[in-house]
């Protein structure tokens, strides 16, 4: 641009004579002013030219800025969409947590009610136990008192028995003395001559008639005993008539009063065995001692029937009689122990020892198959262990969409958790319908899932006690109502559970495992361990009467769409048992 201004100056100034022009000072000023202005014009032209370049540069920068803004806008939109997705997930998680918290609150409320009820029952039981303990203590105190009274009575009884032994010895001495002195009684006390006649010891027996001989010998022994008894009775009466010997009778009456005054607790039976003085009498019948005790002390003796009283025993057998004191009859006291020995043969007139009792073996009844009462189960599936290989599949699954359903089955398990009874999965949701209880949960519950994440928690007690229980899960999408029955009783119910929801057909239906993917993704902690019998599915909601009818063994209601017989395959160690009645399944 500077060369152009020089050319312009030369075009105006060169025509004049340079010497002439420089000679005038005005021309010089004009020249300076002109040069100054020309320089300003040149600078302004340069500025305008640079402005266009800058405008182009600013336009380019604006375009770049617009592109960067568009890129940032797109990134912002992507981030917002990701945030929306995370927000939806967070809402689902929050909803699950709210449901869990609500169910936990309900469970805690129920548990608190149950604990309160149990505490009341426990307090009642404790009070009843305390009162029972107090009554038992009173009974024990009374027993202690009765025991002390019994001990006193026993001491008195021993003393009486001892005195009776002394009296018997005295009577024997008196009888022997009277026999030696041969003092005859008055005529009124003399027995007839027929009674003094002693039969022969060895009657004649014809050969070949041994049974009759034995019977005759028994009769003769009885006659001898009766004769001796009569004779000794006469001797006793004779001794009572002897002067100076009359003090025996008052003593006997005194002892009789002592024994009658002995008291024992009523309503109790005491078996007391007391061994009195052992008397060994040779050629002296026992009847005189027995008669003497009856006459002097008023004691009652226990006799057996005639067919049991007389019995032949080998020589040397000692007849033992043990007195018994019975609480119901305190006055009945048997004679003390006596040992009687008579030569070679001993005829026993005392109580025979009890015969040996041979224990008859009990008849062991054979276990027979009892008729069943619940005969509508058709078959049973057994799941022996918590393995992911143990499950049953239904090939056809659900053939139609369900807006209502009822699932009923008999369940028996010894595990601490219920496991997965049923799971139904589709391609878009692996938890379309699930009934499961996981091992290791913080509290016992059974999850009833329809279209994940919607579910309800159901009480599990008493399903894990090892007994058969009938369960029914019923759901209707009309109001979102559901019912859970255990052994004909309504255990849980609610509404607004997947209202208007539809369970689609064409999925994978499995018993015993929970599906985390279509037909797979099993977890051993969610496996079912136990027995399922009479499993059936209806496409409608059953009434309470129909549920009760199934549980009591009546026929199945109409509308069944699946039964255990429809299971297409059994996997692992699962076994099927064909049993019409529930009682015959195991």
UniProtKB/TrEMBL annotation:
Q: Which GO terms describe its molecular function?
A: metal ion binding
Q: Using the UniProt annotation, give all residue ranges assigned to the region (Disordered).
A: 228-251, 263-283, 296-334
Q: Give the record's keywords alphabetically.
A: Calcium, Coiled coil, Disulfide bond, Glycoprotein, Metal-binding
Give the cofactors, semicolon-separated. Ca(2+)
Q: Which InterPro entries match?
A: ConA-like_dom_sf, Neuronal_Pentraxin_Related, PTX_dom
Coiled-coil zones: 58-107
Which positions fall inside the Pentraxin (PTX) domain?
377-581
Pfam name, any one: Pentaxin
List the biased-composition ranges (Polar residues): 272-281, 296-309
What is this protein identified as? Pentraxin 4
Q: Which organism is it from?
A: Leptobrachium leishanense (Leishan spiny toad)
